[in-house]
User: Fold these one by one.
Assistant:
Number 1:
Amino acid sequence: MELYSVALQVPHHISIHGGLHPSRVITVSGTVPENAQRFHINLCTERDIAFHFNPRFDQNSVVCNTQIQGIWGTEERKLPVNMPFRRGQSFTVAITCEADHYSVSVDDQHLLDYTHRLPELQTIVHLEMGGDFELSKVSV
Ligand code: GAL
C-alpha cells in the first residue's frame, strides 16, 4: 500500500503500480465544498475509464459508468435516497476491487457494487480524481 496524506491538488493523478487485482483497495478521503456541483474518481487503463464514480450534487445522485474508446456506456445511478455525500462534509470512499465487480463504501457503509466492464484488471493502472472536492488522503 502506498499512502499519500499531504494536502493534495485536484485534479490529481496517481499511478496504481501493478494494476488492480481482487482484494486491492483504493481509498480517497476529502471534503465537499459548499458550492460543489460534481466530482469524480476514475480508475483508468492507458486508454479507457474502467470505472467512473461521479457524485453529483446538482442531481443529488451518484453516477457510475465506463468509457471505452471515448464513448460512455450506460449509466448506473444511485437514487437520492442513498446519496451519502453532503455539501460541506468530509468523506472517505473505499473502492474494493473484487473478481467481478467493484464494491464501493462511503464512511464504512456499503453504497454500491459495479460489475466490471473492463475485466482485465491488471491493465487498470491510473487513479484520476477531479471536480469539486478537496482531497486530503489517498491510498492505492
Ligand atoms: C456525462 C458527463 C461526464 C460523465 C458521464 C457519465 O454526461 O459529461 O462527465 O459523468 O456523463 O455517464
Note: The first strand starts at residue 3 and ends at 4.
Number 2:
Amino acid sequence: MAIPRTCIDRAWLRNLLFVRLVARLVSFPAKIDKTMKTSLASLQEWVDQVASHTRAAQVHWCTGDDAENRQLVAQMLESGDLLELNQETHPNCYLHRSDPEDVARVEHLTFVCTPNRDEAGPNNNWMDPKEARALMDGLFAGCMADRTMYVIPYCMGPINSPLSRLGVEITDSPYVVANMRLMTRMGTPALRRIEEEGYFVKGLHSTGELDPDRRYIMHFPTELSIMSFGSGYGGNALLGKKCHALRIASYQARTEGWLAEHMLIVGIENPQGETRYIAGAFPSACGKTNLAMLIPPEAYREAGWKVWTVGDDICWLHPGDDGRLYAVNPEAGFFGVAPGTSQDTNPNALAMLNRDAIFTNVAVTDDNQPWWEGLDDRRPVKDWQGRDFDPKRGAAAHPNSRFTVPISRCPSFSNEAENPKGVPIDAIIFGGRRASLVPLVMEARDWNHGVLMGATMASETTAAATGKVGVVRRDPMAMKPFCGYNFADYWAHWLSFGQRMDRLPKVFQVNWFRRDDDGGFLWPGFTENMRVLEWILKRCKGETEARETPVGRVPAADDINLDGLDEVPDMETLLAVSKDGWTREIADIEKYLEEFSGRLPETLREELEKSRKAL
Ligand code: SAT
Ligand code: MN
C-alpha cells in the first residue's frame, strides 16, 4: 500500500521529539487528585502518567450514573458542544455539530502498528510501533493543559458475560463521554470487573486542535492499546467501537480462537414461535441498521413472523461446546446513519429517536426538531453546520450524520442481547452494494467456499469514510478498514473453524442494490428483504431446493415468496449469474488475491479454481 502523505519523515519526527522534550522541561505537574481511584495499580499508574504527560487541568473518573451525565450535558450546553433540540417533541435529545473538516472515519490516517509490517498486511497502513509511539507522545504532550481529562472504564458485551472484554478510554472530549455512555456498558460496574480481571485495552484520545494534518488513529495490537489524536468523530474517537471491538479484538480473537466481526445480529421468529439468528456483514452505510431492525411485510406480520434486534454493527463470534457459533453484540447502543431513515425505511429506528438521543451533524426544522434528507417533506431551516439552509450548498444534513441511542430503546430489542452465552448463529450473510453482477442471494457450497465469498466481496464506497463515494472496492468480510492484522492470516483463521466445528452456520452472499439498465433498483429492499431471509432460513433447515451455479447456489425465481408485493420484481435478472461477468470478476479477484501471495491460504486458491472450472 502506498505510504500516505502523512507518513512522517525523520526530520519532522526529530522536531516533534524536540518539542516534546521542551514541553517536558517546562511542564509543571498537573493539579491531580492524588487519591487512588482504583485498586488496580497498573490502571492508576497509567492514568497518573497520562495526566502528567498531557498536563490535564483536572481528572474525572466516570461513574456512568445519571447525575454525572446531567452535569456533563449542562456543561456542554454551556460550552456549545451540545445544542438543545425541541424538548417537547424530543425530550432529552441534543445536537452536536462537529468541525466541518471532521465528519467521518479517516482510513488514510489510521495505522496498525504491529512489530513487523507483514503482520499488519497490505490491508493496513503500518507504522513502526516505536516511531508511532514517539509521534503520538509528541502530539499528546501538554495537549490537555486547559482541559478536563475523563477516564472512562467500559465493558464491551454483557457485563456478566465471559465473552465480554474490558477497556478504559481516556479522553478530553465530554461529547465522547456522553456517546460512550450510550454505546458501551460504561462506569463503575465496568471498573469493578477490570479490577477483578487485572487487564484491559488502553485507549488514549484527544481532540487536539482538530487539525487534519495532526490527526492519527494508531493501534498497537500486541500491547492492547490505541492512541487517537485530532478527531472527535465516530469511530475515530469512540474508541470502544471500531478501534477496540474490531481492530484490537480481531487480533486478540485470532490468538484466543474466536472472531470479531463487522456484522449485525438479528433474530427471526417464525409463526411457530421458534427464533433463529443470522449474522450479516455489510460495509458501513449499506443498511445494516435497517436490516437489524426490520419490520416484516404485512403478510408476514399477519402470519406471525417477528424480527428481534441483537446488534447492528459489531458481532463477536465464539465457538460453543455444541459445535455451533455463538454471537454477542459488544455494543450497548446504535451509532446509526441518519439520512434515509424514515417511517417507510425504518419505523423502529424512528420510534427510538424521539427521546434520549444525541444527533450529530443533522439539520433542524423551524421548531428545532432534528431533520435529515429522506425523513419527510418538511423543509429544514438550518443545515448541519448551523447555517441558514440553502439547497445550492448541498444536503441539509451531512450524508454521514448520525444518531446515538441506547439499543434498549429499540422497539424490536431482543432480551437475548443480554444473554451472557450469546445467541446461536444459523446463517452468516455477506452483502455489499453492487449495481450489477452479484445476484440478490446466493448460497456458498460449503464453509470454505463461504470464506472465499466473504474474502472477495466488494462494494461501492459510501460517505462513512472520507474519500470518493461510489467506487467499487474489495471489502473482505466488510472488514477492510477494521481488521487488525494481515487479511491472509485472517482468512486462514476463518478457514480453521471448518476443521474445528461441525455445526457451523451456512454462508450466503446478498445484494439488495442490483440495478436495471435505467439505473433503478431491481429489488425493493428494506422490509421486503424479509423474503430473502425466509429463503435463507429455509435453506438452513433443508426445507427448499437451490439451483447450482458455478459461483454458488441461487433460488429458483419462484422460490422467493413475493406475496403482497405491489410490483413484481424482475426475479430472472435479480438472480442471473452471467458467465462473462463472473469470468471477468474471477480474473479481478485473482489480481486482488495476488497482493497476499506468500501468505494466502491454498484452500482459497482451490475454491476459486473450482468456480473458474465450473464456469
Ligand atoms: O464511524 S463509525 O466507525 O463509528 C461508523 C461506521 O463507519 O460504521
Ligand atoms: Mn460499521
Note: The chain is about 30% helix and 20% strand.
